[in-house]
Amino acid sequence: MPISNERVSAHPFLRALYRDDYYPDHVVDRGRAILLALCERIEAERPADLDALYALTRAATGEFNDLEAAFEEAGSEIETVAREEIAENFWFVADAYGFAEADVEELIATREW
């Protein structure tokens, strides 16, 4: 399903990670795919409130938890810069879909990174 939200379609997800050679592009690509899949789910399911949104973002956060191993295998990790970039992108998604009041810590509450 193509994303219909123009802000999301034009957004350079995980830009800071792509700009830093410490983060391998092929792993960052997987993170970007997680965020785009989250957007597709939001558009398909249209969460009615923050609790419904948090359920979707926490599931996507779990996918980032699983991605940590791929970063490590590639000689990288989800450390401070990556954590902040990922969290900012989750908040961007929430804001782009009308949830500007979302708490970024709640969006990624299930994170292990």
Strand content: under 5%
User: Level of helix content?
Assistant: 55-70%
Regions with pLDDT < 50 over 5+ consecutive residues?
Answer: none
Q: What is the total tally of β strands?
A: 0
Task: Report the total helices.
Answer: 6
Number of domains: 1
Order of helices and strands: HHHHHH
Rg on CA atoms, Å: 13 Å
Helix/strand-derived category reads mainly alpha
Regarding quaternary structure, what we see is: single chain
- C-alpha termini separation: 29 Å
Q: Give a quick account of the main beta sheet: strands, pairing sense, barrel closure.
A: none
Task: Walk me through the topology.
Blueprint: H1 6-10, H2 15-19, H3 25-45, H4 50-73, H5 80-96, H6 104-107
Structure write-up:
The chain contains six helices and no strands. By secondary structure, the protein is mainly alpha-helical. The protein has one domain. Helix 3 packs antiparallel against helix 4 (50-73). The model has no long low-confidence stretch (mean pLDDT 97).
Task: Give a quick precis of the structure.
The protein has 6 helices and no strands. It is mostly helical and 113 residues long.
Descriptive keywords:
67% helix, 113 residues, globular, 6 helices, mainly alpha, single chain
